[in-house]
Amino acid sequence: MCGIIGIENNNKAAIFVSAGLLTLQHRGEESAGITVSNQNTHTMKTFTAMGLVSRIFSEEINCKKLPGQSAIGHVRYTTSAKSSLINAQPFQINCIHGDLAVAHNGNITNFHQLKNKLLKKGAIFTHTSDTEILLHLIAMTKGNNLKTIIAKAVRKLIGAFSIVILKNNTLIGVKDIHGFRPLVLGKVGKSFILSSETSAVEVLGGKYIRDISPGEIIIIRNGTIIDSFIYGKVDKQTSCIFEQVYFSRPDSIMFGQTIKEARVMMGIYLAKQMKNIKADIVMPVPDTGYFAALGFSRESHILFENGFIRNHYVGRSFIKPSQNLRTITAKLKLRPIKEVVNGKNIILIDDSIVRGTTAKNLISILKKAGAHNIHFALSCPPILSSCYYGIDTPQKKYLIAAMHSIEDIKQYLNVDTLNFLGLENLINACSLNVDNKKIFCDACFTGIYPTKINKCTIS
Ligand code: AMP
């Protein structure tokens, strides 16, 4: 998964983008980068590095080295390619159309097919990520008009892509025809912003205007929307529901409600599903389980308690790419508060179980701290299938719910009951303010993929 942001018509473009990237840091902790375009020198410059935004970009150090009036930025954690500097975005190229830079969130599912075709034609690839294909397609598309070049290029892509592109002082946003990944339009002063999430727009002092629509290309220059059009046939919107479950920030707005509201509703529905279960306290797994636990407590009138202390200096456990590191960071990350959990019957709420590593570890920590009964509840259904659209779910054989029965998982985790939010309830929680409830991709829960998935992408 990744976070992307762009701003134009702003003398502090790099500083704004770095602050935006800090706000989007939860979408990827492995690498970060900024491309800035300077109209005074007619140059474009990209700076990328591995690690956290705060370490890479600070006003004094790197942002001053990136003067310019428009910029795009990217935070990344690996889904489809190697976690290394070579794949850190934005990617900047010089091609027949001049200098341009691209930052992408999502997974292009026909990447291997397209790459093989281009390799046969003699194309050279220097990155291993799917995003590079877009650069080739743009470079190889003939024409003088940026609008038609980009539209022609992206029409060849299948899968999930929300993209920001920078060329001179022009900022371009693209969303795939299914609208898998979020991308919103905002404005601060005389500058337009494109961002993965509304929270970044607001942190920059800006106002959220609207979502970029599925299949939309928007072209912005000098504080004006030059063009906005639908580049391809929008079949059916299938926006990733896991953004609400896990990925996005609670203060971001999606489908007319905050992610916080959606998660509170997930908790309310969970409580309705589990109304026969009695407990002393409802406890979240920090941080993602917090609002679902709050909703659960409101609905059930069971006391909300915080029995875990999170070490905020340890990154999101899942974001470390190897299983080894994941287990260690999970232990570092959370400690129980003994007097809260000792002797208690607990309803413990997390957002999801993927491999089961986190849950196994947390439950054993709680038991050691004296917890009596543990009723474990997840604010989404069992994850049964891998995601090919940008969420880092492992191969099916590592998905605990795909390989084992609920009863087996319950015993493995050593909990008294194991409860998952039903899909219909999840969809309702995420679409309180929209009439059409059928706008979500739920392939991770159902195995029904909205696009064709190539054999080489399926593992
Ligand atoms: P696991 O230990 O593999 O079962 O991971 C489950 C934990 O990872 C849950 O506590 C989630 O909050 C978190 N999580 C779920 N999906 C993802 C994802 N795609 N990327 C990062 N973290 C995730």
Please render the helix and strand layout as text.
Blueprint (H helix, E strand, L loop, with lengths): L1 E6 L5 H11 L7 E8 L4 E8 L2 H4 L13 E7 L14 E5 L2 E8 L5 H10 L10 H10 L5 H10 L6 E6 L2 E6 L8 E5 L2 E5 L2 H6 L3 E5 L4 E6 L2 E7 L8 E2 L1 H6 L5 E2 L2 E2 H15 L7 E4 L5 H11 L2 E2 L3 E3 L12 H11 E3 L1 H4 L4 E5 L6 H12 L5 E5 L21 H4 L2 H8 L3 E4 L2 H8 L9 E2 L1 H4 L13
Parallel strand pairs: 14-24, 17-18, 17-21, 21-22, 22-23
Antiparallel strand pairs: 1-4, 1-10, 2-3, 2-4, 5-6, 6-7, 7-8, 8-12, 9-10, 9-11, 12-13, 15-16, 19-20
Helix pairs in contact: 8-9, 8-15, 10-12
The chain binds adenosine monophosphate.
Question: Which structural traits does this protein have?
Answer:
single chain; 459 residues; alpha+beta; Glutamine Phosphoribosylpyrophosphate, subunit 1, domain 1; Rossmann fold; 2 domains; six-stranded antiparallel sheet; 16 helices; 29% helix; binds adenosine monophosphate
